[in-house]
Amino acid sequence: MSAVTTTEVPFQDLTRLHASIQDELDAAVADVMARSGFVGAGACREFESAFAAAHGLPHGIGVGSGTDALALALRALGIGPGHEVIVPAMTFVATAEAVVHVGAVPVLADVDPETLLLDPASVAEVRTDKTAAVMPVHLFGHVVPFDQIEAWQASGLRVIEDAAQAHLATWQGRSVGSAGDAACFSFYPGKNLGAFGDGGAVITKDAVTAGRVAKLRDHGRESKYLHDEIGWCSRLDGLQAAVLDVKLRHLPEWTAQRQVLAERYRERLGDRLVPWEDGAVHHLLVMRVDPNDRDRLLEALRAEGIGVGVHYPVALTQQPSLTAYLRTPCPHSEAAGASVLSLPMDPLMTLSQVELVCDLVESLS
Ligand SMILES: Cc1ncc(COP(=O)(O)O)c(C=O)c1O
C-alpha cells in the first residue's frame, strides 16, 4: 500500500484534448462537407503544405497510414526486390513490415543499450553489398543523431527516417526529415499529431522523391486516366486532413508542454528514464525497471489509477512473422522489451500529476 492518495492520471486523454478545441474541429469538418472535399481536395493539399513547412521542408505528401508512408518512401527511392534494408529490432513492427511490402528484405540490427536508438556498430555488422537503405527510428520521439544519419548517407545508403513518433522533433536545431532522404510519420490517433482514424505522411527536401510518392499513393498516375505504373490507393482523406490541420496549429504548444513535463519527470526519476537529447518530443515517457519486477509495478500503478503501458514488450527478433530476418543477435533490443515501462504523457497533463506519478513510482518500486 502506498502512502500517497491518488486521483486518476490517464496514460493519455484524447477526449479531453479534442474537447479543448471542439469548436475549431467542428468548423473544419463542416467545411469539408460543405466543399465535398473528401479525397485529394483542398483540405489535404493545405495540410500537406502546412505539415511540411512546420518541419522546414518544401514537400509533404499525405498518405493512408504511417506504414504506407514508409513503404511508399522506400519504393519512391527505388528500393525493392534484391535489396536489403536495415531496421532496428526495438520498434513497432511496421518499420520492418513496410520493407517486406516493397519486396525487399528487412535486416534486423540492435539498438544502443542506453538510448534504445539504432546502434551504428550493429548496422555495420549486418550490412552487406545488398544493403540499399537504413531506417532509423526516432523512438519515443527521441531523435537519432543526424551526424550518424549523414554518415550512413555518405557511405552510400539511403536513409528513411521513421518519424512516426517524432512530429516536430529536432536535433541540434534541425528538424526531423532534414537529414534523411525522407521522413515518414503516422497520424494514428494516439500519436503526438493524431487523426480521427488512420493517416500518415512523407516529408522530403527532394522534389523527385516527393513526386514519386505522390504518384505511387494515387494508383501510379499523374493525370486522371493514365496509369504508367502500378501504385497504391493510399491517400490521406479530406476529413482527416482538416482535423490534422486544426491540430497542427496547436502542436507547437502541446509539444512544449510535453517537454516541460518530461523535464520534471527527469528531475524526479533521473537515470531510471531512457535518456534523450534536446529536441525530443516525448511521444512516450519510458523508464527502465527490473524485468522481474515489471508486472508487479505495472499492476501496482494501475491499482492506484495511473495509466501505464509497455512499448514494446516483444523485440522484432522475437516476432514470429520476422524470425526469418534475424542475422545477428539483438540482445539489447530484447532486454529493452523486458524492462521498459511507459508512464503517463499527455499535453494537458499537469506538473502536479507528474509529481503524483513520480511519488508513486518511488513508493512502489
Ligand atoms: C515507430 C513506428 N513506425 C511505424 C508506425 C506505423 O504507423 P501506422 O500505425 O500509422 O501505420 C508506428 C505506429 O504505431 C510507429 O510507432
Order of helices and strands: HHHEHEHEHEHEEEEEHEEHEHHEH
Any low-confidence stretches, pLDDT <50, length ≥5? none
Number of helices: 12
Shape: globular
Q: Mind telling me the C-alpha Rg? A: 20 Å
The pLDDT mean sits at 96
Distance between the termini: 11 Å
Cross-sheet strand order for the largest sheet: 1-9-8-5-4-2-3
Quickly describe the structure.
Helices cover 39% and strands 14% of the residues. It is of the alpha/beta class.
What does this molecule look like?
39% of the residues lie in helices and 14% in strands. The chain has 365 residues and is an alpha/beta fold. Strands 1-9-8-5-4-2-3 form a seven-stranded mixed beta sheet, with helices on both faces. Strands 6-7 form a two-stranded antiparallel ribbon. α5 (94-101) links the parallel β2 (84-88) and β3 (105-109). The chain starts with 13 loop residues before the first helix and ends with a helix. The model has no long low-confidence stretch (mean pLDDT 96). It binds pyridoxal-5'-phosphate. Pyridoxal-5'-phosphate (PLP) binds at residues 65-67, 91-92, 94-95, 137, 162, 164-165, 186, 188, 198, 200.
